[in-house]
């Protein structure tokens, strides 16, 4: 399976004295994608999340502050995160997707290894100092909607009260408070400087006596109540720090702080739609390091070749290319690996006003040919299993999916729809009889469907009520897609530079 993972590749936990002296790697040479650390209430342990067992496979470990005693807490194929040790040291509370892929709070008995899930709980648990209560943040009973007034196209989390922490006397609960709009902006680099949030506490017994502890502009996160002060992570500072620092946790006595840092942090990813040929050649849109042109290479990223320059046809606007909304996107390999078909033009939200065309290109870049005339926006092509046809989506005067015979250029209608309910991102099955695609049901809901080549036997495979998208076939006829069905696995504002932090990959059989 080829997939794009938006994640740091080199992040470590550091511990430092409160006066900023004696900074060191907490795990020394054993550091391996470690993050989200937290001191125990007695200061004897630091729990943390690690991907040492595989990229994207987050597990929970703990270690003493002096770097000794590294031990596993829980390590499974599920997502595990945000662990803290109980005040008596006998239990650990953490977040896991072990129960039907949905994030919930779990409690693990360290003595006997038994764990249990707290029903309808979600994120960032915190023990009370007497060990009798667990506070957590939850987006239960909130709508699946856009991040602005409910109509902005990307979705985010409606979670105004987040990352709870107990006061030293156990009488108050502290959290950071922000709007849904600011939650979205907090993990977008172009809007981070505009974000404001505040640290707020309430009386635990009465859930009243709301106190705002901070004011002014800037993102304030990861709050913690120390003996005589509040600590938190802040943005919107005038000095630029050329590295990523996040997720601080102070020792109970306020003497030390542990945090995650990437000295050489730089936001990069390959492409939103990479594709691997049967001959094991990778094709990408070089969006991060280039100008949205098409580049092929070996899977280890060697032997890169620019096979289709975005400006070679003279049909795209350079300023729009610079903004990332125009370029050569969604390349698809022919079965024999000799050809690529791709879309050139305006994509994403700009497709409503900009044009796009389909091109066929030889794999070595020596020849290209225009396939569509530009009367409608055409893109997201996929080759048939025998290489004689392509399926693609149209937008403009007509909508949804079309099939083109490459020899005759004859186009047939596969599906028809409107600008509000349409089909997109088609993928031809390996045995050639069906096409999978994403169908927009409403402004906020997308389903995965399949259909026969003659437009009959439509099957709706997902009805999650969220955003199911980007379906592709496996070699054995199953379908891989990404889904929002199971919700967020962490507070959305904590993520860096990712629009769809709720996504999980799912594989299903087509005879569902």
UniProtKB/TrEMBL annotation:
The keyword Hydrolase applies. It comes from the Eukaryota. Pfam families: PD40. Keywords: Hydrolase, Protease. GO terms for molecular function: peptidase activity. The keyword Ribosomal protein does not apply. One of its GO terms (biological process) is proteolysis. InterPro entries: 6-blade_b-propeller_TolB-like, WD40. Belongs to the TolB family. This is Tricorn protease N-terminal domain-containing protein.
């Amino acid at each position: 399976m080829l997939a794009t993972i938006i994640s740091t590749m080199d992040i470590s936990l550091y511990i430092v004295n409160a006066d900023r002296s004696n900074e060191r790697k907490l795990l020394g040479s054993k550091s391996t994608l470690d993050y989200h650390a937290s001191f125990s209430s007695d200061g004897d342990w630091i729990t943390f999340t690690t991907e040492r067992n595989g990229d994207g496979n987050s597990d929970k470990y703990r270690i003493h502050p002096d770097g000794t005693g590294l031990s596993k807490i829980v390590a499974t194929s599920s997502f595990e995160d945000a662990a803290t040790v109980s005040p008596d040291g006998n239990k650990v509370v953490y977040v896991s997707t072990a129960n039907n892929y949905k994030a919930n709070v779990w409690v693990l008995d360290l003595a006997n290894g038994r764990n249990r899930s707290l029903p309808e709980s979600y994120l960032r648990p915190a023990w009370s100092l007497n060990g009798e209560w667990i506070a957590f943040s939850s987006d239960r009973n909130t709508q699946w909607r856009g991040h602005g007034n409910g109509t902005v196209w990307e979705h985010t989390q409606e979670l105004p009260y987040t990352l709870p922490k107990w006061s030293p006397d156990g009488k108050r609960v502290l959290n950071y408070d922000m709007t849904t709009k600011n939650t979205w902006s907090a993990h977008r680099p172009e809007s981070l400087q505009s974000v404001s949030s505040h640290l707020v506490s309430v009386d635990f017994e009465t859930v009243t006596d709301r106190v705002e502890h901070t004011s002014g502009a800037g993102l304030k996160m990861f709050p913690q109540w120390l003996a005589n002060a509040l600590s938190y992570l802040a943005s919107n500072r005038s000095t630029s720090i050329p590295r990523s620092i996040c997720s601080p946790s102070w020792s109970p006595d306020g003497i030390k702080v542990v945090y995650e840092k990437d000295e050489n942090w730089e936001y990069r990813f390959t492409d939103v739609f990479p594709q691997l040929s049967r001959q094991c050649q990778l094709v990408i849109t070089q969006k991060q390091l280039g100008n949205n042109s098409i580049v092929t290479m070996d899977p280890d990223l060697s032997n890169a070749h620019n096979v289709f320059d975005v400006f070679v046809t003279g049909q795209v606007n350079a300023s729009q290319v610079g903004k990332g909304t125009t370029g050569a996107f969604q390349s698809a390999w022919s079965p024999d690996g000799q050809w690529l078909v791709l879309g050139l033009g305006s994509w994403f939200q700009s497709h409503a006003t900009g044009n796009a065309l389909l091109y066929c290109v030889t794999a070595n870049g020596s020849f290209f040919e225009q396939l569509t005339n530009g009367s409608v926006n055409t893109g997201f092509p996929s080759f048939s299993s025998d290489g004689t046809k392509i399926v693609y989506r149209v937008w403009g005067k007509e909508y949804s999916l079309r099939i083109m015979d490459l020899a005759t250029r004859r186009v047939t209608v596969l599906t028809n729809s409107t600008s509000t309910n349409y089909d997109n991102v088609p993928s031809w099955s390996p045995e050639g009889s069906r096409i999978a695609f994403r169908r927009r049901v409403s402004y906020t809901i997308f389903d995965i469907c399949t259909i026969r080549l003659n437009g009959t036997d439509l099957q709706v495979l997902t009805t999650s009520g969220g955003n199911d998208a980007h379906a592709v076939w496996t070699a054995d006829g199953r379908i891989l897609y990404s889904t929002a069905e199971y919700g967020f696995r962490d507070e959305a504002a904590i993520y860096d530079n990712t629009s769809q932090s709720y996504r999980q990959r799912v594989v299903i059989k087509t005879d569902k």
